[in-house]
Amino acid sequence: MNAGQQSEPDRRPGSEVRETDSGTPPGLDTHLVVERGEFRLDLRLRVAAGETVALLGPNGAGKSTALRALAGLESLSDGFVALDGRELDRVASRRGGEPGRAQWVPPERRRIGVVFQDYLLFPHLNALDNVAFGPRRQGLRRAAARARAAGWLDRVGLGDMGDRRPKQLSGGQAQRVALARALATNPALLLLDEPLAALDARTRLDTRAELHRHLTGHTGAAIVVTHDPVDALMLADRLVVIEDGRAVQEGDAESITARPRTDYVARLVGLNLYRGRAEGHRVALDGDLTLTVADPLDGPAFAAFAPSAVALFLKRPDGSPRNTWRATVSGIHRHGDNLRVQLEGPLRAAADVTPAAVAQLRLEPGQQVWAAVKASEIRAYPT
Amino acid sequence: MSTVGIRTRPRARARRRVPAALLLPALIGLAFLTLPLVGLLIRAPWTDMPARLAEPEVLAALRLSLVTATAATALSLVLGVPIAWLLARSDFPGRRVVRALITVPLVLPPVVGGVALLLVFGRNGIVGSWLDETFGITIPFTSAAVVLAMTFVSMPFLIVSVEGALRGANEGYEEAAATLGADRWTVFWRVTLPMIAPGVAAGAVLCWARALGEFGATITFAGNFPGRTQTMPLAVYLALQSDLEAAIVLSLILLTVSVVVLASLRERWTAAP
Predict the structure, then answer these.
(1) Strands A78-83 and A27-36
(2) What pLDDT is recorded for position A2?
(3) What is its main location (chain B) (predicted)?
(4) CB-closest option in A5, A123, A134 to B180
(5) Using the 8-state DSSP alphabet, how is residue A375 labeled?
(6) Min Cα–Cα distance to chain A from B2, Å
(7) pLDDT tens, A213-252?
(8) What is the pLDDT of residue B48?
C-alpha cells in the first residue's frame, strides 16, 4: 500500500541530510497570509532548526490558523512556506505578493509534525500503534514501526502504557503520547497547538518541564502556539506576540517582559504601559499627565512600570522626586500575597499593595487616593 | 451539555394522566402492529414445523434469500461506502443532485424499480444488449438479477446511514493522520473506516434486512423460478395461493430473521454514545 512512499528513500527518517540549496539555513521561512472574511492573518516568520518559537496571543488572534496553514490543513491566500530550503507552499503572485511559481505540497508530504490541542489520538488504536502510525506511513514494516514507537513511548516515560487505548489514558499521558506520535516521524518542523491547555494545574507543571526537555532535544524547528505567557516563556527560545493576525512584538523572554509594546503584552507580563512623547527626562502621556523618568529619551516613547512600584497615600506626598497623581480606586482583588488595586483617573493603573497597607488606608472602591511612582521605577523606551 | 441535561430533568417526574385522545389511538395502533404477528404465531402448524422446514423448496428459497441478500449487501458496501464518502467529504458540483438521485430508490415503488432495471439490463436494454452481444451474458431472470434488484432498493439505506456516520465523525482525526504522512486512501482505510465502523455495520444490517424482504423489484426483474430466483418473500406469496400453512411457516422464518436483525441493531444503538 505504501509502495509509492517506499520509492522515496529520502523521506526515511535518519537518512535525511539537512542540506539546503543556495545555502539557506535549515529551518522554517514563511510568510503566511490567510484571509477568511473580515479576518486577515499576515505573519512573516523565521524559525531556525533547533529553535523553539512561541506564538503568543489572545483567542482569535490567528495563532491556530497560522499553525493549520503551516501544516497544509488550511490554504494560503498569499505568501509562501519553505522548510529546510524546500518550498512547501507558494501562492502565485498577486498584486504585491511574493514572486514565484505556485506550489502546494499536501500535509502528508510536508514532514511537519503536529501535536493538536485535543491530541486527536486515534481511538481505535492503542498508544503504541498510535505512535507507530507515522513510522508505518514512512514505509517501515509493522515490527520496525512498533519498535520505534516503543522507543518513543519510553522516552516520554510511558513505556508500559503501550497497550492502553486513548480512553484509558489520563490527560497528561495522552499529551505525552501525542508528542511521541508527532516526534516519531522525525519532523523537520514540530507544531504544538496549546499543548498544555487541556491539563489541570498540577499535571501542567510536570508536563511543561518534560515538554521543554523534549523541545530542547528536538533537532528540527518547533512552534508552540499558546495564550499562556508562562508556557511561552518556559518553552520557547523566542516569542512572537500576535494580535489581530499580525505580529506586534517579537523577542526573547527578557526583552518582552521588560519592554512590552502593546496593552495585551503589558497585561501578560503584568506591567502598566503608556504611550507618550519623550523630551529628556519627561514623557508627556496621551492624557494630560507628564511622567518623570530616569533615562533621558526623545520622541515617541513607551513608559512602563510595575504595579508593585506604585505607592498609595491618602494625602498628597511631598519630598522625593516622585510622579504623583490623584486616582480613584475602582477595584481590589487578591494577587498572590498582596492585593491588586485598580486605579482610575488621569492614569489608569494597577497598584500592588500589602493587605496591611489596604487596612491602614481603609481602601475601598470609589475612594480617592494619591498614587506615586519613583522616576527610577519607570522604564521609558522608544516606540 | 450533560450538566444542562441534568439540571433541566426533573428529579422525579410527576405522574400525570395521559389524555385519552392520545392514549386510545396509541393502543389501537399498538394492537394493529402486534396482532398480525400474534396471529401468525397462533396459526402456525407447530407440530409438523420440523418436517415443513426440511422441505427442499423451503430450504432452497431460504438459502437463495440468504445468499442473495448477503451478496447485495456486499455489493452495496463496495459501491455505497465510496458514494457516502464522496457525499460527506468532498465538494463537487451537483452534489445535491446526486444525493437526491440516491434517495429516489428509497421512495420509488419497488415494482417500478424492477421495470426500470429490466429496461436497462434486459436483452434489449442499453446495458443488457451490450452485455449480451459482447460477453453473451444475460442478466434478467437469473440469481444475479435478484442481487441487482435487491442492491437497487437497499443500497440507499446503507449510503444514508454511512454518510450520517461520516458527518458525525471528527475530521480532526483525518487531519492528524495526514500530518503523520498518510495519503487520503490510507486515511480512509486506516482511520476513517475503523472509526465509523459502527455506522457502517448498522447501515449494512438495515441494507441486508431490506434486501431480504425485497419482493416487487425482484419478481419484476428476476421472475419467480424456484431455486434460481424464488426468494423467501416470493415463496410466501406463491405458497399463499395453494398452501396457507406453508405460507405461515415461511413467514415465521422471515419474522425470526427480522427479529434477530432488530435485536442486533438495538444493541448497536444502545451501545452508541
Answers:
(1) antiparallel
(2) 41
(3) membrane
(4) A134
(5) G
(6) 19
(7) 999 999 999 999 998 888 898 999 999 999 999 999 999 9
(8) 81
Instruction: Identify the closest residue of chain A to B193 by CA–CA distance.
Output: A124
Residue with cell 465538494: B91
Segment A358-363 shows an average pLDDT of 86
Whether A361 and A369 have beta carbons less than 8 Å apart is answered as yes
Give the distance from residue A94's alpha carbon to the nearest chain B alpha carbon, in angstroms. 26
Mean pLDDT, residues A297-325 taken together: 86
Q: What span, in angstroms and rounded, lies between the C-alpha atoms of B149 and B212?
A: 11
Q: How many CB pairs under 8 A join A and B?
A: 66
Range B141-174 burial, b when 16+ CB lie within 10 A, else e? bbbbbbbbbbbbbbbbbbbbbbbbbbeebeeebb
Per DSSP, the residues of A328-369 read EEEEEEEETTEEEEEEESSS-EEEEE-HHHHHHHT--TT-EE
Spatial CB neighbours of B84, under 8 Å, sequence gap ≥ 6: B158, B159, B160, B162, B163, B166
Question: A355 pLDDT band (50/70/90 cuts)?
Answer: confident
What ipTM was reported for this prediction?
0.81
User: Distance between CA B222 and CA A241 in Å, rounded?
Assistant: 71
pTM (predicted TM-score): 0.80
CA gap A371, A317 in Å, rounded: 9
In chain B, which among 187-206 make CB contacts under 8 A with chain A?
A: 189-191, 194-195, 197
> In chain A, how many H helices and how many E strands?
10, 19
Please give the pLDDT value at position A4.
39
CATH superfamily of B49-271: MetI-like (1.10.3720.10)
**Ranges of each domain in chain B:** 49-271
Residues of A within 8 A of B194 (CB-CB) are: 122, 124
How much is the pLDDT for B2?
Answer: 42
Cell of B88: 460527506
Complete domains list, chain A, with CATH:
3-257 (3.40.50.300), 270-382 (2.40.50.100)
Chain A positions in Cβ-Cβ contact with residue B182 (cut-off 8 Å): 108, 133, 137
Contacting residues of B for A120, CB less than 8 Å apart: 170, 172-173, 175-176
pLDDT tens digit sequence for A19-58: 444 556 789 999 999 998 889 999 999 999 999 999 999 8
What CA–CA distance (Å, rounded) separates B167 from B149?
A: 28
Q: Describe the strand order of the beta sheet including A368-374 as a list of residue ranges.
A: A311-313, A368-374, A322-335, A338-344, A349-353
Can you read off the three cell numbers belonging to residue B244?
Answer: 396457507
**Of A328, A350, A349, A348, which is closest to residue A339 (Cα–Cα)?**
A350
DSSP state of A307: G
- pLDDT of res. A321: 59
Nearest CA in chain A to B181: A108
Burial of A270 (0-12, 13-18, 19+ CB in 10 A): middle
Compute the distance between CA of residue A129 and CA of residue A372 in angstroms, rounded to an integer.
62
What pLDDT score was predicted for residue B6? 44
Strand A221-226, strand A52-56: pairing: parallel
DSSP secondary structure of B173-188? HHHHHHHTT--HHHHI
**Angstrom distance (rounded) from CA A257 to CA A269:** 6
Q: What is the CB neighbour count within 10 angstroms for residue B270?
A: 7
Q: B residues 141-170 near A, CB within 8 Å?
A: 170
Asked if A137 lies within 8 A of B178 by C-beta distance, the reply is no
